[in-house]
Amino acid sequence: MIRVYKRLKRYELSKNMARTEVLEYIEGLGEVHRCYTNFATQLKNFRSDGIDAPVSVRDASYIRVNGYNLEYTRTCHAPICAKDSPTIVARVSPLVTDLKMAKKAVNAHRDNQYPVFDSDCSIYAQWEKTAKQQKRRKPENRDAIILSEIGDFKVEQDSELARFLWQDMREKYFKSFVSIGSVPCWQIDPESIDSSNGTIINYVGFDTADESDLGFGCWDLDVGSWALGVLRAAEGSEAACEKSKVTNPKVEIYTQEDLQKDLEQAEIELKSLKGTLLPERISHLEFLVKKLKKK
Question: Which of residues 222, 245, 268 is at a domain's end?
C-alpha cells in the first residue's frame, strides 16, 4: 500500500510539477501560499517567501471556515514517539525548525522507514519534560501534549487534543465540517515504535475538509504533496497576491498505465491484510484505494 501511495504522489508530481504559488489574502490571517513538492524543499521554498513553517491545523481550519482552500495539507505539527511511551504531539515540529532533521526524515521515508534521531530517547525526554511542565496550562496554550491513546483513535470535539490543535477555531470548524463530532487520528503503528531504539519524529497531515482526518503515520515526506503556508498579515499585503512563483524541476514520470497496475496490486495486498489489521484500518485502506481509482 505504501508503494502504491508513493507512486501515485509521483504521478501527481509529474502533472503538477513542484511549485510554490500565492493563493489569496485572507483578512485576519494573512497571505496564503501553497507548495507542492517534498517536505524539505517545501520548507526551503516557504522560507524564501518569509514563511517559517507549513500551516497549523488551526490556521488551515481558519482558511477553510472562511471559504478558501479545502484540500489536504501538511502541517507544522509532529508526533514524537519512543519505545514503551505515549505519543507526544509538538505544536511546532523539530523537523520544521531544523532543515538537517527535515532532510533526514525525507531520506528515511524514501526507504519506507520512520526517522530515528537519537539512540537514547533524549529528544523524547526533552519534549516529555516540556509537556509535563505545561500540564496546568490550557491545551490551547501548550507547546506539547501527551496523548493517552495508543494506536488509532477518534479525536472528540471537546478533547484536549482538539483544543490543542484547533485552538479558537475548534467549535466553528467542527460545526462546519465535522457533523459526527469527532475525526479519526491515524497514529504510527505501536509495533513500529517499539521495534526502534530512539526518538521517532514524523509529521501531522490534515486531510481534506470532507474527511478532516489527522495522519501521524505516513511515509511520504520524500514525494510531492501540498502544504499551505501563511505570510502573516503584518508582513504581507493584498497587493502581493498578484505575484506567483513557479519552479519546475525535473520529476519522475508516472503514467496512468503505471497507476492502474499498482492499484490492481493494492487490491490484492488489501485482501491479504484482512484478518491481520483492525477493521477501522482496513476500512481506511479500502477508502484510499477507491480514492486513488478516481485519479
Answer: 245
Q: What are phi and psi of 169, to 5 degrees?
A: -95, 0
Domain around 295: 1-17+251-295
Q: What pLDDT score was predicted for residue 53?
A: 95
Pick the closest to residue 185 from 146, 213, 219 (CA basis). 213
Percent of the chain's residues with pLDDT above 90: 65
96 close to 202: Cβ distance less than 8 angstroms: no
Q: Are residues 191 and 144 in the same domain?
A: yes
Cβ atoms of 24 and 243 closer than 8 Å: no
> What residues have CB less than 8 Å from 209, skipping those under 6 apart?
64, 70, 71, 177
Distance CA 30, CA 99 (A): 24
pTM summary value: 0.77
Other C-beta atoms closer than 10 Å to the C-beta of 17 total: 16
Residues 74 and 206 occupy one common structural domain = yes
> pLDDT tens digits, residue range 238-295?
444 343 333 333 333 445 565 566 666 666 666 666 665 555 555 555 555 555 555 5
Q: How many folded domains does the chain comprise?
A: 2
Q: Are residues 24 and 7 in the same domain?
A: no
